Amino acid sequence: MVTGGAGFIGSNLVLALQEKFPKARLTVIDDFRSGDFKNLVGYRGDFVAQNLATLDWQDQFGEEKFDAIFHLASITDTTLHDQFIQVHDNVESFRRLLNFARPTRTRIIYASSASTYGPASEASAESNGAAPANIYAFSKTIMDNIAIRETKESPDWTIIGLRYFNVYGPREAHKGVPASMVYHLAQQMKAGQRPRIFKQGEQKRDFVYVKDVVEGSILALEARESGIYNLGCGQARSFNELVDILNKCLGTKFVADYIDNPHAHYQNFTEADLDKVRSALGYQPQFPLETGVKDYMNWLYPENAK
Predict the structure, then answer these.
(1) I want to staple 112 with a disulfide (CB 3.0 to 4.6 A). Which of 89, 145, 161, 251 is the partner?
(2) pLDDT by residue (tens digit) across 8-22?
(3) Domains plus CATH for the chain?
């Protein structure tokens, strides 16, 4: 089962699972608030269109058993500031899912977020305390708290939280404004415009390619015990570097257009400490920024592929 399977990371995960486990019965749940059916072209499994914040799992699935449930559904727009909607939908959806999975101890792999770390100036390790700077990050922090409590009370139940860093790649265009900087800057440059980044472009992000986070998510199927893990590339790269890489991939020579940053709470630095996830899951990202952006541009603009 994959919740949020019509979304960006979810659809990439669903199609990878279908390829890796061709005999598996796959079911996707999504309400299309931040997903699109076009992301699932070629999908051969079942689909349930439901709002997870109100879904009665028992009524929908009865005695059906799942080997694992990937829970990626959430309100992913970090600019949505309605605190009630953000927390209610993200947290209550998770709570309902856990209530369904508890009797059978079904393995849960859920999307947490690097945003739970808040402002940082060095690599974030899972042992760092939460410091959410927006309501989205707060909702993910509460999900982590609930997961930790559940696994303490039920040590025989495996629940894995994955803190995705700044993910980019195919099937994100439908997100609009919340889509990655890689996508937005590429679109600007492809349209003949200078790429717009915040002054002076030295903000740094752990840009991680979606193929790496999908691989890391699938590795969680074999995890021997519960835990919360970072999934990133493990290297912070500046916006200026990203513009340079895009110029090379697109065959352009644009100079950045520096603009003021309107955001009061902004992460000027993100980087994943990968020590824990390497040792526990064997995760090893394969796409540094240069390789990931090139692969993505070839997918996004196949007419330019070299």
Answers:
(1) 161
(2) 999 999 999 999 999
(3) 2-165+210-233+271-281 (3.40.50.720), 168-205+236-265+289-294 (3.90.25.10)
